[in-house]
Structure formats: C-alpha cells, structure tokens
Amino acid sequence: MQRLFGQAPVAIAIFRGSRYVTELTNPAVCAIWGRTQAQAQHTPLFELLPEAAGQGFEKLLDAVMATGQPYVAHERPRSSTAMAGRTPCTGILCTSPCAGKTAK
Q: Which of 69, 70, 35, 71 is nearest to 52 (CA)?
C-alpha cells in the first residue's frame, strides 16, 4: 500500500485514533507539510504541525470521527509556516473515516 500511496499524484495521509497519529503518508502530503516521511510517521498530527492547531481542523476531524460522515471542502485556504516565502495556496480537503468504521 505504501508504494501505491507513494506514486499517487495527490496528497494522502491516514491517521489513527483521537490524537490523529499519522499511520501512512505519501511524499506529496509531506511536501505540502514541509516535513519528511520519517518526521511524519507515527506522530500525532497537531504535534507534527503545531501551526495547523487552532485553524478549525481539530473540530473538523473530531466531527468526522464522531459522525462517520465524510467532509469535503473545495478551495480551503491553508496557513502554514512551511509556506514561508512561498505563494499561499488553496486546495481540496477531503476527510473520511476508514471503511467499516462506525461512529463512536
């Protein structure tokens, strides 16, 4: 699966648990985050990306986990210290619970 994700032309990350520990990342998402795959592996999302905390992502991910309903946003602005000196960007954000998982 890692090889398939690694070749995907889109950014992909899989998280586990209430702390959103990164279980699987691909090079595209790590490039966006400004982190290596080694830094990302088995690290809680908001420890890995403290600059993402307080931007509403925690609430969004908590809601997806609680309801089991996917979330999709088009052209969501992203703020990150990894973007310093680069053009700000927007993107599509999709989050969904893993297949077979039910709401808590």
A: 35
